[in-house]
Q: What sequence folds into this?
DNA sequence: TATTCATGCCCGTACCGCTCC
DNA sequence: GGGAGCGGTACGGGCATGAAT
């Protein structure tokens, strides 16, 4: 910075003022400094700036190890939102759902100098915990009350299940991720609530991890049971695995069995058949989460109504494609009846609610 | 740090020595310091350490905006490799393939204090460029010579194409990503080479972006041509879109048309039919890239043979599943003949070469 | 010789002070 | 007198170095 100052014929202080935009500088002086900066290719040293201001303009996000598309979209969304607001994002990964793992992740982020943390990993109610020392926003389920930011995961289970019931299915089976995930639990609760509200039998839930593998394993189990006609898979990856198992077993989707997924990952519209799924507005969710965190950071005296989450924006929506249909009334139904009506762009699907 | 020093009854300097592990400290002193650190919950300030040492232990990676699984796996792999080596990773995103965009990304990373950069975005030969001032490792194609790190993208196109030719297809059509991507170009070259080596006609290449959408669009075009029996899609996402288009058009895979993808993304084994694809060893590639970069950083006097890339490890491999078969010899072939033989784990598939 | 301490410096910014009109 | 415009000094929290015990 001293070099720039010398080249511009001013003091280092003035260079700082020009670069930070704070303070009053004559236009001609500013131009001279800008010119010198360009000529010398000067770039401020962030470490020094951080040391001096005490601010890092860096946020942290705690994620799971999983390579699921949902996780990816959350990270990408947070990354983008941070960039838009002039922040950087550091991620930390937890491999287990235990509190120790979380604490370690938070410590790692703290040492990396983050000013706030977004928790996008499962936090079981028993382990309810928030890292001390900086603001936290959670993309966790609302049930525990304390987190500031929520998606209505229960609504996801409800939407999917009601859709299948409305099509005429007697009941709906559920293929889900690990029981200790709040998302999983809440989606199961929504599914359960929809079934009991309809007064139908509630089958046992199948749990696995979130991989297509496990979807396949659980799908095989369900494929053996001829009474199964409707399946709610708690993620698109699980749904894909389950559909594969059904296909292997010779049970047609949706003619014999209907399947609903969750997430609406990019390829969901291009599966055979295109997958009916519940879309989560990841981009909006992460954007809102980051905004909330930044607003906490920048004027801790909360900006009133702005802090409250617009639940309208974060509501999940059902995307109806071709993996769901009314259950076969007769005994057969093996002909490949439905050629998808998806528009050429492929992204379509009728949007409901 | 001063507080810790006082609590431990030593100087700040000694605390620094204990924490950094450099310098000689009596065991009893070390214990006292460690104890004080724990009691006070002290964590060193990275910005200050960086300012003093000039080292950030942070690497950068330049990625595209795409949300393709391949990109994700590269980032995740690099992230993991960095963590293993005690480095942090910052990512920068480019939206265009132009050199300006690259330069901006590099500047952003520079200002973030990275010590080295991994380039995992397309760099066209015309724009051949390396950011000045720090070491760079590229996950780019080898053709340009200068990058230090390569995958044999040509082999990918060759493997896929030869597989289809060996099955008896007269020729192979190609569905590819943007022509300005070196990966795309190299894969097309491999495909082209395999076709000309076999002395068969070389159809025109279809180009789009890397999304399943575009795969669908291009797939529709190919589906209209009854002479098309074998398709090489340059990514699994493209393959999925193409398969969707074929399905929409009523052309069975693999009975009427065979499809080969690239990447072996997690769901590839669970598509209907399970996708034959060329696997790239992403984890190994990124791990090797990060290691090379770090070795450059830590003892610039290259560690001899270690720097040379073990091409054995980075060789792509063909995973044969059920989306490819010999072309129908008769005029028909519409019955759904093959029930997949994939093992229950679903990850399987015969591995070739 | 084995440890420990004291001082300067890394590179910015905050704060205060000084000059001018 | 007051404000625009700019400079000087004192840090921030560590580490390197040489001096001191």
A:
């Amino acid at each position: 910075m001293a070099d720039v100052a010398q080249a511009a014929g001013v003091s280092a202080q003035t260079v700082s003022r020009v670069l930070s935009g704070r303070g009053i500088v004559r236009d001609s002086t500013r131009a001279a400094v800008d010119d010198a900066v360009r000529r010398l290719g000067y770039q401020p040293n962030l470490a020094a700036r951080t040391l001096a201001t005490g601010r890092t303009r860096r946020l942290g996000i705690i994620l799971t190890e999983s390579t699921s598309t949902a996780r990816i979209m959350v990270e990408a969304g947070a990354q983008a939102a941070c960039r838009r607001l002039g922040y950087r994002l550091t991620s930390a990964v937890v491999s287990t759902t235990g509190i120790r793992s979380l604490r370690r992740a938070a410590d790692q982020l703290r040492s990396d100098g983050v000013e706030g943390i977004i928790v996008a990993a499962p936090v079981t109610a028993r382990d309810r915990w928030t890292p001390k020392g900086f603001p936290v926003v959670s993309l966790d389920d609302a049930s525990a009350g304390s987190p500031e930011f929520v998606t209505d995961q229960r609504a996801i289970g409800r939407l999917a299940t009601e859709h299948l019931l409305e099509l005429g299915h007697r009941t709906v089976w559920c293929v889900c991720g690990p029981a200790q995930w709040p998302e999983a639990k809440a989606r199961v609760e929504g599914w359960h609530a929809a079934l009991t509200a309809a007064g139908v039998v509630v089958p046992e839930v199948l749990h696995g991890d979130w991989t297509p593998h496990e979807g396949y394993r659980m799908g095989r189990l369900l494929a053996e049971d001829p009474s199964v006609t409707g399946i709610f898979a708690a993620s698109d990856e699980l749904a894909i695995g389950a559909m594969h198992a059904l296909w292997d077993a010779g049970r047609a989707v949706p003619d014999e069995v209907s399947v609903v997924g969750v997430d609406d990952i990019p390829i969901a519209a291009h599966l055979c058949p295109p997958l009916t799924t519940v879309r989560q507005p990841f981009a909006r969710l992460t954007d809102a989460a980051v905004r909330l965190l930044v607003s906490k950071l920048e004027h801790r005296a909360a900006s009133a109504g702005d802090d409250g989450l617009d639940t309208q924006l974060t509501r999940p929506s059902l995307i109806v494609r071709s993996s769901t249909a009314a259950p076969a009334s007769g005994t057969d139904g093996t002909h490949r009846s439905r050629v998808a009506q998806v528009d050429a762009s492929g992204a379509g699907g009728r949007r409901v609610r």
